[in-house]
Amino acid sequence: PGQQLWTGRFSEPTDAFVERFSASVHFDARLALYDIQGSEAHARMLAERGVLTEAERDAILQGLAGIREEVVEGRFPWSPRLEDVHMNIEHRLTERIGEAGKKLHTGRSRNDQIATDVRLFLRDAIDTVRDELARFQHGLLELAEREAETVMPGFTHLQVAQPVTFGHHMLAWQEMLERDRERLADCRRRLNQCPLGAAALAGTSFPIDREATAAALGFDAPTRNSLDSVSDRDFAIEFCAAASLCMTHLSRMAEELVLWASPQFGFIELPDRFCTGSSIMPQKKNPDVAELVRGKAARAQGDLVQLLTLMKGQPLAYNRDNQEDKEPLFDAVDTLRDALTAFADMVPALSVHRDRCREAARAGFATATDLADYLVRQGVAFRDAHEVVGRAVRYAVEAGRDLPELGLEELQQFSPAIGEDVYAVLTLDGSVAARDHVGGTAPAQVRAQAQAARERLA
Length: 458
Ligand code: ARG
Description:
single chain, Fumarase C, Chain B, domain 1, Fumarase C, Chain A, domain 2, 3 domains, two-stranded parallel ribbon, 19 helices, elongated, binds arginine, lyase activity, Argininosuccinate lyase, Fumarase/histidase_N, cytoplasm, Argininosuccinate_lyase
């Protein structure tokens, strides 16, 4: 005999396979505390409106408090036969308090209940993720200040382009994360409306007070349309889109960390506690954490596509398809949160091989643009200057030397406009210090930007 809450209409119990096929409690039990919170607000509101007596309300609240303890302490008797988190809790409530428990579902449906639970869950999850983002950002700002003077090659096409400071590169990462943090705040703001009262789809004939339940649960307002309330999963999609973009950013950082930690680059040393060894090659120290972050970005992208595809064919209003929204959403939350934790712990703890960074910038004709700019200041048109420096670089490549290593006479073969003062602009430090404007790579700018970013975070 099924323990279901709807046996009245049916002439035979649910098929055993269908029971298993349709159960969701093995994953939606994660929403239990939010479900209880929603039920408490609903019961209080019903009593306020005279739909429940005060005695019934008190019995329900007491029963729910006991259930909360069971959940928190891991003693709650979850049953897959009761399908989902809602029916497990309601069934348990009636077991604990009797008749009054059967009245809790007045003026409510699992459809508005689940829409509320998921929003409450995601609101908390966003707060946690944004805190973790901010922690990582603070770590990057410290690292940026520590390495404000460290010169490294900046790349385009992964070819040495112009010298930049390591600090400036860290601030580029921090900008990506700041946009991610804003996107999540935006998503939170839009999801913070309360679906309770939409009931199954059309609302309810009971004299409910939707403003009261919305306020009690910390929502900004009740949702405006009951059909939309139970069928909308935009907020979950928005979160997954923001999460997937943030994971894409983390994945790009991971890629750079992996490259930089390789002996060929040798720019950084990752702390041993964040690396792993090889079961066969004794010399290996592998950047697995960064690689896993890069790999896990694929999960977040999969979660987003799964949700978009889940929704695209659904007519209004609620369809059971929606039960499939939880696993990808939970996965996106967990994946993003863990990736942020890993990087917030690991990245600020890396050490920079400053000599190697400088060496790599020095070896790559990184100041060729500075030489062209110098010629422009001597009155040469930029296009001509570009040509002149191109020829000088070709000469230096063949001679196996870098530009500052060429003598003055050697340089003057390419342009008589070159004078002794050219060496000042050919140095790496001169090059980065000259880019001293908003958004530029000069150490002074890095320090100013780090300070401004810290104020935005506060
Ligand atoms: N487990 C369901 C879900 O996740 C809860 C709502 C079920 N509603 C229904 N009419 N079967 O969406």
